[in-house]
Structures are given as C-alpha cells and as structure tokens.
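Researcher: I'm preparing a figure for a lab meeting and need a structural model of a single chain. I don't have an experimental structure, so a prediction will have to do for now. The sequence is pasted below. Please return the structure as tokens so I can convert it later.
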Amino acid sequence: MSTKLPPLRSLLAFEAVGRSGSVSIAAGELNVTPGAISQQIKQIEGHVGIPLFQKDGRGLVLSKFGKTYHHMIAAGFETLREAQNLIVNAQNIHDISISGLPSLMIKWLNPNLPSFKPSNARTTYRMECTHIEPDRRLVDTTFRLTYGEVAFKFPHSKVLFTDHCYPVCSPSYLEKYPEACTPDGLRSLDLIAIAWQPMHNDPPGWPDWFRACGVAMPKKVPITTFQLSSLALEAAANGDGVALGQDSFVEKDLLQGRLVRISDAAIRMPFPYYVCWSGSALSSDSAIEFLDWISIVGSKRGPRLV
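Model: Understood. Here is the structure written out token by token.
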C-alpha cells in the first residue's frame, strides 16, 4: 500500500458513496455520472490495495476496513468544510444568523433583542424560527437556540436558563370565571394544552400541574392543543381559556396586561434552554458580543418558583 494520498476526486467519491450507500446518489451530489463514480471507487481501492466496499443487494456497504477508513476521511472533509465556513463568516463579519425554536425566538429573544448593543453599528441579523434542528456543524448558522439534550449534538453549547410554568389567562376571562384562581376551580374550565412532539419532548402539561397542586386532573379534555407555545398563549390572551405559560414567554404579555397570572403554583421545566454554536462561529467581534449578551440575559432568568 502506498503512503501517497489517493487523488482528491477518488476521496470525494469514496466519502459520498460511503455516506449514502449509493453510487447514483453520490453521482448526483458530485454532478458526475454513476460510471465516473464507479471508476473513482476502483481507483481508490486499487490505491489502498484493500476492498473498501461489498455489495448488499442493489447497493454498496462499507467493508470492515472501509468503515474505519471512511470515518477518518469523512472527518477530514468536515474539517475542510469548517475551514471554509470560517472564511465565509469572516467575510460576513457583521452578519449574525440565529436559528431557534419559534416560541423562544418570538416570545423571549425578540423582545430582548433591542437591548443588545454591538460595538459595530453595522451588525445585522438573520432570524430563522424552526423546530427542525440544523446540521450539527452549523455551517449556515452562527447560533442555534434550542431546548433539552439535543443541544449536546452541536460542537459547543451553553445553558441559557431553565424555565417554569404557571396558569395564565386574559383579564376578561378571569373576570368572568374568578374560580380560575384555585386548582379546584380550574378543573371545570377551558384548558388550553401544548404538545411539542415529535420534535421535542413535551413541556410540563396540565396533568403535571394538577398533580403538583395535589388535585386530580379533570376528565375534561383540553379544548385545544397547540404545537406552538406562542399560539397557545395568544389563544389565552384572546379569552379562549387558561394556558400553562412559560415564565420567559409570558413576561411581556403580563407587563402589557394581555395576560394575568392566576396561581402562585408553578412547575419547573425538566430541561434548560441552550445557545449552541460551531467552532468557527466566534470569528467576529459581533458574534462574541452576542454570545456574551445572550448569556447574561439568560442568567438573569434565575429560578423564581413560588
């Protein structure tokens, strides 16, 4: 076996086929013909002197040695992509791209963002609200704001805060149903539920809250279930019923009088919210300043359970 590196085209073809298990898919990715991919695979196997693939039905699977070789080659290409991303970030030095869970972005980050004062006034933001977690390398994203253990898949992560929930409703709803201020009174009223699955484990729900209060969960099914916490809170603000609001999400609505907290009883979220970033994200002063700022803002949301 030669210690000289195989041709780059062969390495690219090997990485693509090993990852996808398909010559045709690899050909599409690299914009060449399947025949060209097959030729490159033959070339690299001839170079290393050991079979890297074995047939599995209509597809190809890596051999035992091929798996080890592919893992190392793929890691090398990922490092190259990180290097390119570093250059891209340096060229867009004043651009901060933030991807986050929709309700966290809308109800927490956006109201707080005006307090971020970067040293460079030309700093711009690109905001993406999505439940879909980006590629773990965060190639096109400076920061990802997410919830729970999924944060550990990214190169770097830091806890922002751990939230807690309590019942909220509109002032008009409370005026109409004053019994909503007690757990027993709530049992017969209109409950608004939140379900995040399948993207994330659900936040604490009404059964958890009633259990914490020592009261049996009513048999009555919640009138509406939302996948977005922000939509559930809007329904509550519109007078449709009572929702379990996360403290960080309802802060502005409480101050504006759109919502009122109707119970001191609160339950803690099982996981924290995180800010995540890649190794190349902090290549600009603006990004470093943003991370410092959001860390401080998050830390101010310490436990305030009653």
